[in-house]
């Protein structure tokens, strides 16, 4: 692919290698897509900025096949080795711009380095809205299991624990009710304001959820508890675990640059692993509307890479239909 040079140097243009498939993201979605694409014998590059959420998982117990659990960093290392073994190339880069022109995608990172690709898989994940703790204190609380963000992932590990849920709104109420299926000791408390009506609060109490209406002024994680302090009150409360229900920010900026519509949460459509309105563009994992889980991200990656491969085959007249039709045409002549 020929790109024009935008500086004043004497080289007016240069040729860069064009990959069949460029993945943005090296989490479970991007690495699964890379493995599949490479095994379809597609030249495959994975651009990533080391921000997989999976790297923060102390020990996951719901990735099928790992009954003793596996730490997120170990899973990512295994998946990286697997994708590289079959030929995928991983490059550290924070992709800032992506565009499509003349049938090719161009990806540009924050340093201005460019890559070209015939198809793109965006597996860019999401960022959690977190409680206000210093970075290392926050990560230590996650590692000690006193701070959790995903009941689907780890509520099972907190059966009969003292559980606090932060966020006195509909999301917090929904999360508290889910967690009450694992423990009878669930307390809902507001980050700032109570956004539920008196009737809703009454229904929660009848469902066995305890309520605190004063907002949390300080979070004090220890190695085995989350101690919560409240503004005017000198009686901190200790819980075995805190689940903030504060939502997330999908990393969908690149998808938006290519014109994909986003839903009200900022996610791309659930069908995006199968294809989008931009020919050759696919999405996978947490950036897609659905269940934010490793096994789902892996499945999306497999689907997106297969769809990208088949889309490239169609463009190249390489499908069974095209080859067989062509053969019949020759025979008829
Ligand atoms: C503490 C914690 C515990 C969890 N526990 C579990 C569990 O037990 N079970 C489970 O199934 N799930 C769990 N999850 C969720 C799980 O981590 C995610 O569902 C999974 O990582 C999603 O995979 P993904 O590939 O879509 O996104 P991610 O793993 O987040 O990867 C996104 C990738 O995109 C890259 N990226 C994004 N934007 C750019 C850009 N502009 N340029 C370059 N690179 C970019 C990032 O660097 C990263 O490589 C947990 C999450 C957390 C935080």
TrEMBL record:
Domain FAD/NAD(P)-binding as annotated: residue spans: 19-301
Signal peptide interval: none
Keywords linked to the UniProt accession: Flavoprotein, Oxidoreductase
Gene Ontology MF terms: oxidoreductase activity
Coiled-coil blocks: none
Keyword Chloroplast recorded: no
The protein's name in its UniProt record: Thioredoxin reductase
Source organism per UniProt: Alteraurantiacibacter buctensis
